[in-house]
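Sequence only, no structure available. Ideas?
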Amino acid sequence: MADLTTKIGKLKLKNPLILGGGPLSGTVSHIKKCADAGYGGIVTKTTTYSYYLQRYPKPLYRVKDFMKKTDDPFFVPQGYMWLHREHNSIYPPDVFAKIIKQAAGYVHDRGAILIGSFAGRGIDEWKKVVTLFAEAGVDAMELNFCCPFIPKGLEEDERNEFLGIYFSQHPDKGAEVIRKLKETVDIPLFPKLGPDSTHFVDMVKVFKEAGADGVSLFANDRILRIDIETGMPVNHGPCGGTSNHFKAHTMKWVSEITQALDFPVLGGRGVNEYEDAIEYLMAGASGVEVCAAGIIHGLKHIQVILKGIESFMERKGYRSIDEIRGRAVKHILSHRQMIEDVRPLYADVDLKKCIGCRRCPEVCVYDAIEILPKKVKTIKEKCTGCSLCSQVCPVTAITMFERDNDLDHFRALAWEHRDLMPELFNDASQGKR
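Reply:
I predicted one. Tokens follow.
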């Protein structure tokens, strides 16, 4: 039987699914429901001392690209987009500590861990709340280095300039917080980052050296969608949002951080099915945060994902999560490796399988497919090996083969204007390897 047990630094989870902090973990009853749903870990709703963020924005949720079926009310389409406006917990941190204290035992009895979440404005706030939460029973803390600034004029407090995303934009200041907290408590600390940067490896290295036990990627980005029928912005304008398509962006950074730093990363955004969780793990994630799917599908869906992971592992022969984690990372090639180790390809059509649908010539931007009366065939001399035709073929009649030299590939690229690059076609030895 597949073992879903997961280790994240000092922490041991019964499975790699972690509830991302949000509306599902803002009260004792909500936290208990998530523990019953089967999460391996639960991140509580973020708390702060900011009056504004305790109350605003008012919760407003919208889904786009969400096809509904009258005969199946519980149908959830792939690729929908979740847009939301959301406040932090209305309960001040001192009060929320009482919620943690009431819920922690229940969570632990169900084999899960509880992770607190806080956005502080100064080191005194950070030390006070992390201590409170640790005493109340959290197993770790997620440090909110990701929430946006409070809009000017809505709450005039100069301390709000040093809140949330400030610590991602100024990693040295985030590192100061981490160092002070490591002197204060003995529980793991995971800074949570926003997606608005291009230097995450450098940033995470600073946090690691300061004593962080891992990082969480990412908070939802601010995005904009338009209702073209009304000409109005969805949800009144740019707001937090995610979809399955954001998964690729997060996984890129998960893989780069784990490759460069060998450091625990909690990956999140865009997880709806077990395949998404497996992808994150194979990209190197130590745990996978899942929030929106628990809302849109309902908490019962967590068991669907877990059973999917377990069935996948049994089908593929994986005995543990450790055998999955980072499996793809070692196969990620550098630019130089792509040049030196990846052979050029060409496509070939199996005429016995081809049904003559003519789908492949529609996507062949190199005009390397000849249309026959009832079939198609590739023109090897013009084929650059992009492989798209083989992926859209509905009957898998197209197979890709390796060329034995680079020269023929370069000739295919220049085929349309052979007269402009005669050196490619006159020197048969050039470019071979």
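The first strand starts at residue 6 and ends at 8.
Hope that gets you unstuck.
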